[in-house]
Description:
The complex is a heterodimer.
Chain A: H1 2-11, H2 17-31, H3 35-44, H4 49-60, E1 65-72, E2 77-86, E3 92-95, H5 97-105, E4 110-116, E5 121-130, E6 135-140, H6 152-156, E7 165-170, E8 178-187, E9 196-199, E10 210-212, E11 218-225, E12 232-237, H7 238-250, H8 257-279, E13 281-286, E14 289-294, E15 299-305, E16 315-324, E17 328-331, E18 334-336, E19 339-348, H9 353-363, H10 374-377, E20 382-389, E21 399-407, E22 415-423, E23 429-440, H11 442-454, E24 457-458
Antiparallel strand pairs in A: 1-2, 1-4, 2-3, 3-6, 4-5, 5-6, 7-8, 7-10, 8-9, 9-12, 10-11, 11-12, 13-14, 14-24, 15-16, 16-19, 17-18, 19-23, 20-21, 21-22, 22-23
Chain B: E1 2-7, E2 13-19, E3 24-27, E4 34-35, E5 46-50, E6 56-60, E7 67-69, E8 78-80, E9 87-89, E10 92-98, H1 113-138, H2 146-175, H3 180-207, H4 212-215, H5 217-236, H6 241-270, E11 290-291, H7 292-313
Parallel strand pairs in B: 3-4
Antiparallel strand pairs in B: 1-2, 1-10, 3-5, 5-6, 6-8, 7-9, 9-10
Helix pairs in contact in B: 1-2, 1-3, 2-3, 2-5, 3-5, 5-6
Amino acid sequence: MRSKRGELGATCARLPWGRMSLLFRAILASVALTSQLFGAVPAASASEAPSSAAEGIYAAAPPRLLQIRTLVVDAARQTSTGSGFLVSADGLAITNYHVVSQVALEPGTYRLEYAAADGSHGDVTLLGVDLPNDLAIVRLDKHDAPFFAFNKAAIEGTGPQKGERLYSMGNPLDLGFTIVEGTYNGLVEKSYNERIHFTGALNPGMSGGPTVTADGLIVGINVATRRGGQLVSFLVPAKFAEALLRRVSTQEGTPNLRADIARQLGAWRAALYASFAEAGFRSNALGPYRAPDSAATWFNCWAQTNMGAKPKPRARIDTTECSSDTSVFVAEDLNTGAIRIDHSLVTAVELNQFQFASALTQQAQPRLLTAGPLRKWYTSERCHEDFVRAVPGPQHPPLRAIWCARAYREFDGLYDVSLVAVTQDDGREALVSRLSLQAVGYDEAVALGKRFLETVEVIR
Amino acid sequence: MIWVEILSRHRDVATRLRLAGPEARIGRGYDNDVVVDDPYVAARHLRVFRDDAGRLVVEDLGSANGMFLDRGRERFERIITDGKMPIRIGQTFLRIRDNAHEVEVERIVPVHSGRRRLVMAVALGALILGVDVLKRWLTETGEPRISHYVTELLAVAATAIGWVGIWALLARIFSGHARFLSNLLIALAGLLVFTFYNEFVQYLGFAWTWSVPASYEYVAAWLLLGMTCFLHLREVGSTHLWPKGLIVTALLVTAIAVQTIQRSEAFSASGRQGITQVLMPPAFRAVRLQDQDSFFGEIAALKATLDSDRAKARPDDSGRF
């Protein structure tokens, strides 16, 4: 378990395939010759029974499958590609928001195009998005085309069963339409946003493609894989796509997508922080201290110590780190909404008080979690620092606390905040506690900060 | 008896001539009593004689370029000289004096002053190196290595000696004396003040939660450097102190302005303050503990700043979400 920790810490971010296909574009020329081999992979295992199902599904799928391309208007060349699929006879199709985000945010600079399996292609209009669930609905100039239907059990939340075979389709790495066999593994645990855990080889470019049961009905939409994992992939449950489809079918005209994205982000993160605040903090023992952790179920926590290090460290540092896997994709260069709580118990082994304070200085620098380019998305950071005692009483240690915050340039009422508190009750032992909140409302952050500091206690 | 002194550009005596006659002639030609090798001086330029009252009078013999007092622009035909103000012909400065010219009273040789200054310099140097070592040791969080200390000390010492060496060389060139000890004392005093200031600022930042001096530490560093340079320049030559002061001030203002612009640009580019929050032992705290409400009251007030930052970052509403 511990060996996985590093990978997880570094790669729990979702993998937007639109962007990934951009990265792979450079090597496309070199893989062009071998692309037939890729196409042959499903056929190679065709002798087994479930794969006959795959053959059947794949035989029926092509007219329903799409490749969605984002093109630079002036250059008329694709900048990223993803997948999509038709869900109505009059040309409505579903894909991921992150496949079409550039068009949603900068409609003047980018435009969309679809390419079908029969080689036809044409313009695509973006009708609506679901930012938290990374979905988008587009309209094609196609009529009376065959389309995919939703799996009823998946919409109602009763199916499929763990271990059931699923078939995922899309156009990986712009190599051609492909079908991938995999297994349904239920919903991802410890995840705030509902996602299906699909064990199958999804690749960049398959974003927005459908995943179906053996009878060809939609269960989920391909959305991400875990970097460093083996076949660990994620799907958006079909019920969100169905809800979005219903919403868009009834809407009149096309909404202002930028405003809608800001509104959806605001609403989603308000719900996130409401549920974070409702779960509250629970205190966790760390040496003589009690440190606040979130009681919400969607946090991943890890511990770390430097005691095994050689040469023997002169200050012992035991760290716990809880992070929520809650970032949403807003733009190519902005995934935001993560929450993190870190605590380090620092104990002097061979250091005097001054040396210990220097060691603490390194641990206690305020750092905001950055989710995108600074100048594009954020204002400058502002900090306030002071000595504070959260609650009178000997079990509440004096704290040296620093609060740093910055605003999002484009989103009114959204801020990134980091609160670091260092206990000041002992010259050779201290707890460094850090609360980092992305895309939080300012007053919510202040209220959470208060409760966070109140929960820091010492028992000697 | 007439004494003629030809001066250097720094008004030091380059040549001193004793003329026995009642009258002296000065010019470029070899029929003069004093020959001046200056292409801007006439072949027969000046005549020096005594008037009825016995005063020394300098007279222009009709030169093209004329005769002036020191750097003055007023041309004189005739000057009754007091022996103090230099007379300029062409690019040459002269002083005319007679035997009766009064000189300053004898200065008393300072006893042991050289040794006392040497002791002071050694003490200052030891203090600076000591503070450096102590600072290094107090911020040491890994394994202490003697080589780190030695390297740092050698670097500080080499820099100080190099700096003093340059000023001593300049002083030697321009005033003839290196004044190594004086320059060393000036440099060490500057360094010591900076070392203590640096520590003091960090103390203010932690104990008094007052971080303004830390943010403007670079200004103090430049001021200190400017003052040190001015004192060095005074050692090089004690004339023209006003222009020297002005030059140092101008350089100082430029340096501070450039760095201020650089920092504000770096801040708006990175959005980070670029200050390290230094922690010290808890016993150093000098202010009262804030209660929760006043602490978060200050924090709530930051919101207005952030919102105005946002409004400034987004002057027009085009392309807005």
